[in-house]
Task: inverse folding
């Protein structure tokens, strides 16, 4: 199934490549999308005006002069000073909102982005490309059921046998002329009572233990937030990179909730929700996106009617309710996973691009962490840090280590206590 | 020949019963059950109580379980500053400045809070070295007893403008009466300009410098002989011979961090050509510096001058020396011979504040050619500038009523002036006084106005400890309280148009040429390219890998060959005559000294410093009278050679109290017996008894109680009325203040007082080869003696393969495929300064427990510096050994944990999972190194209701539970709660952080190759002598691997024969003297290897071991 999908995907991209007017390589194409998400998507969409203009047809608008466009993207402020007519008009049209500078993007990378922009079909024909959904089927339950039924049958058989046995005994006693004892009702039968209490103890114990283990675990925690912030609209529909807002994830132990100024980077210009998809709460009521943006303005102390420029001094911080809470004795570092481990955000947070208000997707229990560390491979060959593990490199070459399993986090000590508890 | 024996306590020396029973019990506590012969169920608190507890805990668990998970908020910035990422620490260069002591520092700021102070490796003076006081200074920032607002007449003034108006009115009122600015030594060039500007506004006014512990003697003697009232730069690193006459230069004095740094370089040993400096100490008490000496002699304090004269005479000086007793005379002769052999490579230092003695010392240094070689005049110290006579004159003037206004900054004469009463009387006659001190201290209390200064971590500034070596101060946090920098106040009051920051910036931009240079200087923290000449280090250690510092760091500035100045022989004869005619000492003499942790009491309310044990006495939280074993015998009839007496003295924390009387002043202090103290000497530490008058010993209880309460409010709960003030015993000789009293009356006071010492808390149960030591001469003769011993051991246990690690145990060998952490400690460089101890506390959120808890063995330090004596009680040798978790690869603690809360990592760490620990304490019992610490109470207030804490914890612990103080905690380290075991983690949070940094940059971890480190433990980073090296042992280029490899001949592991396979190695201590230890004499390891069994049998057969 998964393989089929992969084949299909490859085919689709191949077709795309063949039909695209530029002879770009596959890598450049994929690159273009990644670069677009990382650098442009926070302010630009392909077919829609956001903080910046829609990028579809950008080359035509610039008169097909790529050099100008490159210069503009590298350093728009310097380019404005050259007095280019179109550029200055554009600047005024967008209320003199400064575009970010991208001095580090190479010309080839910009071309890749432009190629990607061209390749995106107009809305209607667009199909959302979602990440592969891993269907998880648990087979552990089947055996338990089988054993349970077996136990039950055996217990019934045992009961019947006991009954038969006692009847036979009664009969033989009668035959021998011994007076039959008054039969003890089962609720006063000590054997039954003992059996029952043991049973109760076991079931009760099991429930208590599982209950205790689950204490403080908050999978699915879905608190109401001061602003109905839809990740679906931002990360899904508008393709804004997670790291644009949660930039701490690649530098720090905290992913960080974005500060008000990051919201206002875009929302100074975007002051109403015009998306096609309607947003619904869990209870089915519709969310007024524009009203939620107004809530943000209230916190930010911003009124587009008064001034187009936001003054951060008037703002108040937004008191978000924290969704993901780890106990204090656990050390978790986002950058370790995102930057060094190259783990996708969705692995732990679920498909945030399809969620509206974020909820806790994973269990965040120790077992959950450990299980992932047992199966996830580290960037063993790509990351120079692991060059010191000479033995593992040799073993991989010799085949002493199964190369499909590879070097997991566990292998380099990732399940040891003091990797997370200190 | 008697075996050489190392002992931590007198009990260990005498093998007393108390020592033996202590060795049996790790936790010397009675179990909380009533001791009946009956069974547990029959005792008085039986079944019913059990049921009560059971019922209560079930109910409590049910209640707790039904509680909802609390809702937590995540509140982001409104407008995030670009260079702050929550969760990532920022580092700012600044400078620790205190009473003239200057140490360039780096402040680690996490989410806006400074949480750790580190040394600045760019400084050519200290190269990243630190002192315990500097390490602890970050806690002073969060001191709850700091004054939170300016005050006038004891009442809060709401705004600075209102305050300025009040003061201006008073300035107008005093008319032309002189204004005096009284400060400790000012090392800041811009502050000096600010002061000049201020003084110019008030004609006739003056600036008086007053150092709590003065160096006037040195300044005056240099003026007499060199024509300069200054203190020259010293170069201990280049000195082959260092002779110190009562100078505790490693613990106190002009700049101890720099002295440690230089001293450490001279003590490093290169095994290819084993040479090191020779340190000879003459002193009256066992000082920390003296404990490091190669040869040490003791004498009466009043004989210091005579010793100096005798040394001068022995070197050929034209004076007649007074007669010394024969042993001392021989020592002087020997020292003189050594000095003359090393002309141009020797240095003589004296701790005395008597200018006459210092003149003789200058004469000696001239004779041995130190001037221009080990002593350089091209750069002079600014750290001590006070001239005692000036202060004396000021107090006279004050009493005469001629002073209009007194402005006091960082000076506290009401506490630490020798005649504080006269100062206080004088202060009352001054028209008005302003204090800039940060606390309502003894002096501020008497001032009309108090406008508290910022803490240094909130300030702007600069400092120039030595001419040409400037370091800058920048704020790392905005002021916590309504305080104002004192320079700003001065500028305001001199009607200057700018504030101090603008002033400072303008000054340095002018000097440095541009704003960009200023920014760079601020980022570096130090300004390079001073006036002094720079010379590449050429001493024996320059090629040694021991110098583990970054190669990129500047080379230490030694001023070799420069800075000679002309010497005037004139004053010597007169000085000699003065010394000759000095009064002879009485039967008992008193010496006043400063502890390395407490100093003169500036950081009195710092619980970290109070709880860091004194390196020699291992006592915490108090000062006391140090006496010799001989004096103990004559005064208290304690004979330490007798088992009963030594147990009596040592087992109980309650010590006999001695009453010291001088001219009607009385001081009653508990005694601590320190071997190596001169029999005619008592030593008392300064800096204690803050806030409460020491002389109130005779007062009635109620009055004293009021005083103590006041002290604890003003000075703080940790330092107020802790110990007793010995400053009143300082003597004024007409020119300078002397820190000894030639004749005191001593008597037993007849009662006892509790002192919390840590020395006997840990014992190695007679395993003797914990420290190894030899002499340089022996090492030269037999360089491989330690190596051979280890090889023998390995052969004994693994005769076939010689693989001790694998074959000497039943356990399998676990591979360490990537990193294997290891530490190596050079006992030769460790001076015992405690900087690492305090650094460890700060880095790892180690709890403060308070005096009573220390007294019952509940101290929590992860790293301790063990002090061992060896030799006779009269004048023993001392070895310091930093002892921390050894992270044994075959760890005894791991095997015994019933819940696997402690286990080993694949990187060689002995891990501790606090939340898994159930507190059985088996691990601590089974640890041969005694480095595990148990949380007997919830010292940090991690999970208790505050009101429940009050009954249980001492005030000292409660300080650390305060919301403000808790801001100092390191957020990367769990705060441990009650009932769990903890211990050194090799700073695992730093290790993880360093690994992550390398991973993010996709490169192998750097651990000392080319001097670059991704990871340094807090202790390693703090060490001013680079005694501690740490890194990845699997990397053959790493500093720690090289350190072990290049010093194979001195390498040892503590009690290696029990096969714990520690990851901490040590290098044997080497004393530079000519004694050749005979094999059996040097054989400290009688129990090593296969001999162990035989020896023990033998000892048991004899019945009693040595020293019966």
Result:
């Amino acid at each position: 199934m998964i393989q089929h999908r992969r084949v299909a995907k490859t085919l689709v991209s191949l077709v795309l490549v063949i039909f695209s007017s530029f002879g770009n390589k596959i890598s450049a194409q994929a690159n273009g999308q990644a670069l677009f998400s990382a650098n442009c998507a926070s302010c630009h969409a392909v077919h829609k005006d956001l903080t910046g203009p829609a990028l579809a047809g950008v080359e035509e608008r610039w008169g097909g002069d790529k050099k100008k466009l490159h210069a503009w993207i590298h350093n728009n402020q310097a380019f404005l000073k050259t007095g280019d007519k179109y550029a200055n008009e554009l600047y005024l049209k967008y209320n003199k909102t400064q575009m970010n500078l991208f001095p580090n993007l190479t010309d080839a990378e910009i071309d890749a982005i432009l190629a990607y922009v061209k390749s995106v079909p107009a809305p209607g024909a667009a199909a959302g490309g979602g990440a592969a959904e891993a269907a998880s089927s648990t087979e552990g339950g089947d055996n338990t059921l089988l054993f349970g039924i077996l136990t039950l049958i055996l217990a019934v058989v045992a009961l019947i046998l006991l009954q038969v046995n006692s009847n036979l005994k009664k009969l033989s006693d009668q035959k021998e002329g011994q007076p039959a004892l008054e039969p003890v009702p089962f609720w006063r039968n000590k054997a039954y009572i003992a059996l029952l209490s043991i049973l109760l103890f076991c079931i009760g114990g099991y429930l208590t233990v599982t209950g205790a283990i689950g204490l403080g675990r908050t999978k699915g925690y879905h608190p109401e937030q001061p602003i109905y912030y839809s990740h679906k609209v931002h990360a899904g529909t508008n393709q804004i990179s997670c790291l644009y807002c949660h930039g701490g994830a690649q530098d720090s132990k905290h992913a960080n909730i974005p500060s008000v100024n990051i919201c206002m980077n875009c929302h100074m210009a975007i002051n109403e929700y015009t998306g096609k998809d309607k947003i619904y709460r869990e209870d089915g009521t519709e969310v007024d996106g524009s009203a939620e943006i107004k809530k943000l303005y209230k916190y930010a102390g911003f009124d587009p009617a008064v001034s187009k420029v936001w003054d951060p001094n008037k703002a108040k911080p937004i008191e978000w309710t924290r969704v993901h809470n780890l106990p204090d004795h656990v050390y978790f570092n986002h950058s370790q996973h995102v930057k060094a481990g190259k783990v996708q955000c969705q692995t732990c947070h679920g498909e945030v691009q399809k969620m509206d208000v974020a909820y806790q997707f994973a269990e965040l229990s120790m077992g959950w962490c450990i299980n992932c560390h047992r199966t996830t491979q580290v960037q063993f060959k790509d990351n120079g840090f692991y060059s010191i593990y000479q033995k593992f490199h040799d073993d991989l070459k010799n085949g002493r280590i199964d190369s499909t399993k590879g070097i997991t986090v566990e292998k380099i000590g990732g399940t040891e206590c003091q990797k997370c508890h200190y | 020949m008697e075996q050489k024996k190392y002992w931590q306590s007198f009990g260990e020396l005498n093998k007393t019963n108390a020592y033996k029973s202590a060795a049996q019990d790790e936790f010397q506590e009675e179990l909380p059950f009533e001791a009946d012969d009956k069974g547990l169920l029959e005792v008085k608190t039986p079944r019913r109580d059990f049921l009560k507890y059971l019922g209560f805990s079930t109910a409590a668990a049910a209640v707790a379980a039904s509680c909802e998970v609390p809702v937590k908020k995540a509140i982001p910035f409104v407008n995030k500053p670009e260079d702050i990422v929550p969760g990532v620490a920022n580092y700012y260069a600044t400078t620790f400045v205190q009473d003239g002591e200057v140490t360039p520092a780096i402040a680690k700021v996490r989410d806006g809070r400074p949480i750790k102070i580190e040394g600045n490796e760019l400084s050519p003076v200290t190269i990243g070295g630190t002192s315990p006081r500097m390490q602890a200074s970050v806690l002073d920032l969060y001191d709850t007893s700091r004054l939170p607002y300016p005050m006038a007449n004891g009442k809060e003034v709401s705004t600075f403008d209102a305050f300025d108006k009040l003061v201006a009115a008073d300035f107008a009122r005093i008319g032309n009466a002189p204004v005096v600015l009284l400060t400790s030594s000012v090392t800041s060039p811009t502050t000096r300009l600010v002061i000049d500007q201020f003084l110019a506004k008030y004609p006739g006014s003056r600036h008086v410098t007053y150092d709590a512990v003065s160096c006037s003697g040195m300044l005056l003697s240099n003026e007499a002989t060199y024509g300069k009232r200054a203190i020259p730069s010293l170069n201990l690193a280049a000195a082959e011979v260092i002779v110190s006459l009562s100078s505790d230069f490693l613990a106190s004095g002009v700049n101890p961090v720099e002295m440690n740094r230089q001293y450490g370089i001279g003590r490093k040993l290169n095994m290819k050509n084993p040479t090191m400096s020779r340190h000879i100490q003459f002193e009256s008490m066992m000082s920390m510096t003296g404990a490091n000496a190669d040869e040490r002699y003791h004498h009466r304090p009043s004989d210091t001058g005579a010793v100096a004269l005798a040394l001068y005479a022995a070197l050929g000086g034209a004076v007649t020396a007074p007669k010394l007793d024969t042993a001392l005379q021989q020592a002087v002769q020997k020292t003189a011979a050594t000095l003359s052999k090393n002309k141009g490579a020797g240095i003589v230092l004296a701790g005395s504040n008597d200018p006459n003695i210092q003149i003789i010392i200058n004469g000696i240094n001239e004779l041995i050619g130190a001037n221009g070689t080990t002593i350089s005049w091209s750069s002079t110290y600014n750290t001590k500038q006070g001239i005692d006579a000036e202060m004396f004159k000021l107090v006279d003037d004050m009493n005469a009523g001629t002073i209009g206004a007194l402005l006091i900054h960082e000076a506290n004469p009401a506490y630490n002036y020798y005649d504080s009463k006269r100062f206080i009387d004088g202060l009352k006659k001054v028209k008005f006084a302003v204090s800039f001190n940060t606390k309502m201290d003894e002096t501020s209390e008497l001032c009309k106005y108090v406008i508290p200064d910022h803490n240094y971590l909130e300030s702007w500034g600069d400092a120039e400890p030595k001419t040409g070596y400037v370091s800058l101060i920048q704020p790392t946090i905005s002021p916590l309280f309504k305080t104002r920098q004192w320079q700003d106040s001065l500028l305001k009051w001199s009607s200057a148009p700018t504030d101090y920051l603008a002033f400072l910036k303008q000054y340095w931009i002018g000097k440095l040429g541009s704003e960009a240079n200023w920014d760079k200087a601020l980022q570096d923290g130090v300004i390079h390219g001073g006036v002094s000449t720079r010379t590449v280090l050429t001493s024996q250690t320059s090629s040694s890998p021991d110098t583990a510092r970054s190669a990129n760091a500047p080379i230490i500035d030694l001023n070799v060959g420069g800075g000679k100045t002309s010497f005037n022989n004139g004053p010597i004869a007169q000085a000699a005559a003065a010394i000759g005619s000095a009064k002879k000492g009485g039967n008992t003499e008193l010496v006043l000294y400063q502890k390395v942790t407490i100093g003169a009491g500036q950081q009195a309310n710092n619980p970290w410093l109070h709880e860091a044990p004194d390196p020699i006495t291992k006592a915490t939280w108090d000062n006391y009278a140090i006496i010799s074993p001989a004096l103990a015998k004559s005064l208290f009839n304690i004979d330490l050679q007798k088992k009963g007496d030594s147990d009596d003295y040592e087992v109980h924390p309650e010590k006999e109290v001695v009453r010291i009387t001088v001219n009607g002043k009385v001081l009653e202090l508990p005694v601590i017996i320190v071997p190596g103290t001169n029999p005619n000497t008592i030593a008392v530490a300064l800096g204690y008894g803050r806030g409460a008058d020491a002389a109130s010993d005779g007062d009635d209880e109620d009055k004293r109680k009021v005083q103590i309460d006041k002290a604890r409010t003003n000075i703080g709960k940790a330092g107020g009325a802790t110990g007793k003030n010995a400053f009143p015993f300082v003597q004024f000789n007409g020119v300078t203040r002397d820190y000894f009293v030639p004749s005191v009356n001593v008597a037993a006071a007849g009662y006892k007082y509790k002192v919390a010492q840590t020395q006997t808390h840990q014992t190695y149960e007679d395993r003797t080869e914990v420290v190894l030591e030899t002499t340089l001469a022996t090492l030269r003769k037999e360089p491989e003696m330690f190596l051979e011993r280890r090889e023998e051991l390995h052969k004994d246990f693994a005769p076939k393969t010689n693989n001790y690690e694998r074959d000497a145990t039943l356990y399998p060998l676990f591979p360490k495929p990537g990193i294997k952490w290891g530490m190596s400690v050079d006992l030769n460089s460790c001076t015992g300064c405690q900087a690492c101890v305090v650094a460890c506390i700060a880095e790892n959120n180690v709890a403060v427990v308070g005096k009573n808890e220390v007294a019952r063995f509940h101290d929590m330090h992860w790293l301790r510096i063990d002090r061992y004596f060896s030799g006779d009680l009269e004048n023993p040798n001392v070895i310091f050994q930093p002892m921390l978790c050894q992270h044994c690869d075959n760890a005894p603690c791991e095997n015994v944990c019933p819940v696997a809360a402690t286990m080993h990592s694949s990187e060689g760490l002995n891990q501790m999972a606090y939340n898994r620990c159930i507190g059985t304490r088996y691990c601590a019992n089974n640890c041969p190194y005694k480095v595990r610490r148990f949380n007997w109470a919830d010292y940090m207030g991690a999970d208790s209701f505050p009101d429940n804490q009050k009954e249980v914890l001492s005030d000292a612990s409660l300080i650390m539970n305060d919301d403000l103080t808790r801001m100092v905690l390191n957020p990367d380290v769990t705060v441990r709660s009650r009932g769990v075991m903890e211990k050194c983690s090799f700073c695992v949070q730093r290790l993880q952080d360093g690994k992550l940094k390398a991973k993010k940059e996709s490169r192998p971890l750097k651990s000392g190759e080319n001097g670059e480190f991704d990871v340094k433990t807090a202790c390693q980073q703090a060490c001013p002598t680079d005694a501690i090296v740490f890194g990845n042992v699997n990397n053959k280029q790493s500093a720690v691997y090289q350190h072990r490899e290049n010093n194979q001949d001195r390498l040892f592991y503590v009690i290696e024969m029990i096969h714990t396979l520690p990851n901490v190695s040590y290098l044997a201590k080497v004393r530079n003297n000519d004694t050749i230890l005979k094999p059996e004499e040097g054989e400290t390891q009688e129990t090593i290897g296969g001999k162990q069994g035989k020896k023990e049998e033998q000892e048991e057969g004899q019945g009693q071991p040595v020293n019966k």
